[in-house]
Specification:
Elements (H helix, E strand, L loop, with lengths): L17 E5 L2 E4 L4 E4 L2 H4 L8 H11 L12 H12 L5 E5 L2 H15 L4 E5 L8 H5 L4 H4 L9 E4 L4 H4 L4 E6 L2 E2 L5 E2 L2 H14 L2 E5 L23 E4 L10 E5 L20 H14 L2 H19 L4 E7 L2 E6 L3 H10 L3 E2 L1 E4 L2 E4 L7 H15 L1
Parallel strand pairs: 3-15, 5-6, 5-7, 7-10, 10-11
Antiparallel strand pairs: 1-2, 2-3, 4-12, 8-9, 11-12, 13-14, 14-17, 16-17
The chain binds pyridoxal-5'-phosphate.
């Protein structure tokens, strides 16, 4: 491949060009085979080019590509029903990405309590658009783009319940912070925040962009916490590899956003909806999700046996490991020397987001490759 000078340098890309994928395998333009334990950062949850997803896309692509949201489309209607009935039971707004799903949630919260504050948590990540970025309290990401959207505050997770009052429009959190290195928020804090939101009339938004769609071994991560939010946002794995997001609101919030309040030209189009429906059909299944939990335990157990691995965290197949060495250098060596795709969320933390369809043999294979790097 020629040097890709036509791109703005917003990504520190590796010198690899992938041309094909199948299951847990990726292939580059020189014919090398890779084991993918990152899935485009939690996107290809059924592995690359799952036959059911590809078939759904092919079939829909031959029928109808786009109508816009002034009309209904069949896969979009079926997906809306399925998503809503498998989560909060209210209504859905489709988007094209995780940041956009969060933008929709923030707008809903601001309209629900006009002028209210949005509270987020240190270490959280919600996206790069202005609203989502304003809820992402990281100096390096926010500072160059000031001024941000007014009325956003960030606190430590433990302080959340005491921070919520009648001026709060919403609290937005990830139940497990992904970009900061797979850090779960304490369940007690989430429960107390739920109570504080109820008492103050504020909304609780769970950003399930990374944790949702079966990644943690339940369809939505909140299911295993016994804390039900008012709004969830989804994206990443939702579209089976195509760009797709959703903001799902509970029944009592169904009518907060009225016609004309929000919109998106492409969102919820027939092809992405067909791909999402095919994905959900497979993932929303108890036996499938049980397997995700078992494989997650196996991956964490194997990881913690490796010399050089100091701590292992995670739920289901969302796994982080603190290492004694240089994690970004390990990621590079994993890719270029061992042909194992993983990433580093910080100087000492590796993250593993394999396909939910990964096999035990592939976990063994990945760990053997990793052992040559972290040991
Ligand atoms: N929210 C969470 C928890 C994420 O992990 C991400 C992306 O990494 C986003 C939101 C933003 O999603 P997108 O990149 O699709 O805008």
């Amino acid at each position: 491949m020629p040097p890709a000078d036509a791109f703005l340098p917003t990504y520190a890309r590796f010198p690899v060009t992938f041309v094909r994928g199948e299951g847990t395998r990726l292939y580059d333009d020189a014919g090398h085979e890779y084991l993918d334990f990152l899935t485009g950062i939690s996107v290809n949850s059924l592995g690359h080019c799952h036959p059911a997803v590809v078939a759904a896309i092919r079939e829909q692509a031959g029928k109808l590509l786009h109508t816009g949201n002034l009309y209904f489309n069949e896969p979009g209607v079926a997906l809306a029903d399925r998503l809503v009935s498998s989560s909060l039971g209210g209504g859905v707004f489709f988007t094209n990405s995780g940041a956009e799903a969060n933008e929709a949630a923030l707008k809903l919260a601001r309209k629900h309590r006009s002028g209210g504050d949005i509270v987020s948590v240190h270490g959280g990540f919600h996206g790069r658009t202005y609203g989502a970025l304003s809820a992402t309290p990281q100096e390096s990401k926010q500072a160059p783009f000031a001024p941000l959207v007014p009325g956003f505050r960030a606190v430590e997770a433990a302080a959340l319940p005491d921070t919520v009052d009648e001026r709060t429009a919403a609290v937005i959190v990830e139940t497990i912070q992904g970009e900061s290195g797979v850090h779960p928020l304490p369940e007690g804090v989430l429960r107390a925040t739920r109570e504080a939101c109820d008492a103050a009339g504020a909304l609780l938004i769970f950003d399930e962009v990374q944790t949702g769609m079966g990644r943690t071994g339940s369809l939505w991560s909140y299911e295993r916490l016994g804390v039900v939010p008012d709004v969830i946002t989804s994206a990443k794995a939702l579209g089976g590899g195509l760009p797709m997001g959703a903001m799902i609101a509970s029944p009592r919030l169904r009518d907060v956003l009225a016609a004309g309040d929000h919109g998106s030209t492409f969102a919820g189009g027939p092809v992405v909806a067909a791909a999402a429906l095919a994905t959900l059909e497979i993932v929303d299944d108890e036996a499938f999700l049980n397997r995700v939990r078992d494989l997650g335990e196996l991956l964490r157990a194997r990881l913690s046996e490796l010399p050089g691995v100091l701590a292992v965290r995670g739920t289901g197949l969302m796994v982080g490991a603190d290492v004694s060495g240089d994690a970004p250098a390990m990621t590079r060596s994993a890719l270029l020397d061992e042909r194992l795709v993983i990433n580093a969320t910080g100087p000492r933390t590796l993250r593993f987001l394999p396909p939910l369809t990964v096999s035990e043999a592939e976990i063994d294979d990945a760990l053997a490759r990793l052992a040559r790097i972290v040991g």
